[in-house]
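This part of the workshop introduces the protein records we will be handling. To make this concrete, we reproduce a full record directly below:
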Amino acid sequence: METRLIEDSSAFAQLEPFWNKIVVQSAANTCHSTFEWLFTWWKHFGIDRHLLLIAAYEDSVPVGLAPLYVGNGTTEPRDLHFLGQGLSDYADFIAPRERLDVTETLVSALLDLRSSWDGIDLEEIPTQSSNKALLDRAIETGGVAAAWQTTVRCPYLPIEGSWEAFYATMGKGFRHEVRNKLNRCRGKGLDLQYVDRREVDSVFVDEVVGLSDERQATDGHRSPFLNHPDQEFLREVLSLMGQRNQLRVGELRSGNALVAFMLAYHWQGVVSMWNTQYDPVCAAYSLGRIVLVWLAEQSFREGCHELDFMRGEEPYKFEWTKLWRTNVALCTERTAQPAGEPQTLLKHGAVQVIQGERSA
C-alpha cells in the first residue's frame, strides 16, 4: 500500500471516479462525505488554505481517503480540519469498514507530514467511528496534546413498516394539530400545494434566499443562504447533487408563492433533513411541521430506510424519534515542540506528493 498527498484541485478532481465507491464501503457513508459535497466545498472555501488530502492506493487504485486541509497560519492557525468543516454534519476518514489497515496507513502518512501542521481541530466525528482509537494512538505517537469533546446529538429515525403504521404512533395530539393547521390554512384562503422537487435552479434558490431574508428580518432566524460564500457554495452544490439524484426538497406553495420548504439530501437510502424555512407571515400555521410530515411520508413510500435529522437538538426532532447519534471533536492545543524526524504509527509506503497548480 502506498499513500499520495493531493495538494491541488486538479489532482483532487482526478479522484472523482473512485471517491463515492470508497464512501459507500466506509463507516463515513453519508451525503457529507461524497465527492460532490467536499470537492465543491473546497472550490469555495479553499482560498488561502492548504489542501492536505491523503489517498491510500493498492495496485494503483485508491482505497482510502483522509479529506483534510490546514489553516493558512496567518489569519487562522495551522490546524488540521476536515474538508467541509462548518457546513458538514458528519466527517471522518473514508476507508472500507473492515480495513483498519487502510486507516492506519492514512494516519501514519499524516504523522509523516507532521511539519505541515501545528494542531488538530477535527469536528463532527460520530462516536461509533472505529477511527477514534486510531486517532488516539496517532496523537500519543505524535506527541500532540489533544482531547475529545462532545459537540452535538444527531437524532435519527429508522424507517420500518408502513407510513400509516408509523404515523399512528405520533399520537392523536400531533396528528390533530396537523389537521387543524391545514384546516386553518384553507379557511384563510391558503390553498397549499405540496411540490416534490428533486433538482433546483437559480430561480428556486432566489426564492429560498428571499424567504430566509424575511424570516431573519422578523425574528432573527439565521440561514446559510444569507451568508457569503455559503450561498454561492449551496447554489453550486445543490444543483450538482440534484443532477445526481442526491437531493430531496419538499415545497409548500400557495398559488405561485413559496411559503415553506424542507431541504434534504438523499444518499444510499437515507434522507437527511438539512434546512427548513417558512414565511413568517404564516408562522401561526406550523408550515414547517406540515412540510416535514409530507416529506417524511414521501420518504416512507419511496422505500428509504432512515430519516436523519442531523446535528442539532431542536425539540421538534424528538417528537419524531428517541434515537440519536453523538458527534465528537478532537481538538489540540498548539504544540510548541518543533517537528523533527517524521513519526509513523505503522510501516507504510512512502508518501508520494502529487503537485500541480494549486487552485481553489
Q: What stands out?
A: The mean pLDDT is 90. The domain at 160-304 is CATH 3.40.630 (Aminopeptidase). The chain has two domains: 2-153+327-354, 160-304.
